[in-house]
Amino acid sequence: MMKCPTCGGECALEQDGAVQTWRCTCCDNVYKVNRGESLQPEAPVRSDRGVKAAQPPVRGANEAQAPARGEKKELSGDEIFSRCIDSVAEVRARRGNTVFSGSAYAFRSGYAITNAHVVAEGGNPADRVEMFACGRSFTADIVALGSRYPEKEDLALLRLHGAPAAFRSVRFADVASLKNGQAVYVIGNSLGGGTCITAGIISDKRRTVEGKPRLMTDCAVNRGNSGGPVFDAYGCVVGTIVSVTTTAEGMNYAIPADVVKKFISRTEI
């Protein structure tokens, strides 16, 4: 692992060769260096986090075109849907004669994030994971489950097979900058009947539920939304839908984006 000169996080090797491609597992910046060289700054520039970076971030062709964090133009609901829909997938996990429906979202090239309970109910992995996005069906393997790590988060990392090129990776929001009352959007496979969008606000940016940090929203969420993304008004993911609270009307919880990124870094993909 190499250290990211932008945020100090760990960088994972994505492409090997004479020129290597490294991606930070924390801030998602990409760096290209000659084999054997370190990610030391040569011509410092501003990164999208507002600190010195070794090189300008390289945005992959399959990465969702969310606005840079410096842009303060909030998008309307229809703009969020059209911009982000190609990053969201419907999930059907089959175990014997039982089918579980849920949602997922693309992360990097060839991977997706969902809830563990969508693809491994009761800790038992599904026999087959089927997905649908960008008008095409494809399959996935379970690479990692959150139950295998100390945090025991309800998250799963999937490796995709035959996913369309248009299935684009999301960008994560800076959770520290979230505010109660700001607009958010949930896109997912609500009720297992197909992908749709709902809107609401962040009701509480940091709740503790059964000892775990959660983001609370009032977006309409139903069975099938589990594992799907919560987007801010700039098209960046702030959380992953995990549950609906039965003790309040219309409230639900999401796993915050910083917790999701920590889980991803644990998997060492």
Spell out the key features of this protein.
6-stranded antiparallel barrel, 18 strands, 6-stranded antiparallel beta barrel, mainly beta, 269 residues, globular
Descriptive account of the structure:
This protein has 3 helices and 18 strands. About 10% of the residues have low confidence. Helices cover 9% and strands 41% of the residues. By secondary structure, the chain is mainly β. The strands form 4 sheets. The chain has a 6-stranded antiparallel barrel. A 6-stranded antiparallel beta barrel has the order 13-14-15-18-17-16. The chain has a 4-stranded antiparallel sheet with strand order 1-2-3-4, with no helix packed on it.
Shape: globular
Strand content range? 35-45%
Strand order of the largest sheet: 7-8-9-12-11-10
Helical proportion, percent range: under 10%
Order of helices and strands: EEEEEEHEEEHEEEEEEEEEH
- Uncertain residue segments: 41-61, 66-70
Distance between the termini: 11 Å
Rg measurement, Å? 18 Å
Secondary structure layout plus pairing:
Blueprint: E1 2-3, E2 10-15, E3 19-24, E4 30-34, E5 45-46, E6 52-53, H1 77-84, E7 88-95, E8 98-107, E9 111-114, H2 116-119, E10 128-133, E11 136-145, E12 156-161, E13 183-188, E14 196-209, E15 212-217, E16 229-232, E17 237-244, E18 252-256, H3 257-267
Antiparallel strand pairs: 1-2, 2-3, 3-4, 5-6, 7-8, 7-10, 8-9, 9-12, 10-11, 11-12, 13-14, 13-16, 14-15, 15-18, 16-17, 17-18
What is this structure, in a nutshell?
The chain is mainly beta and 269 residues long. The chain has three helices and 18 strands.
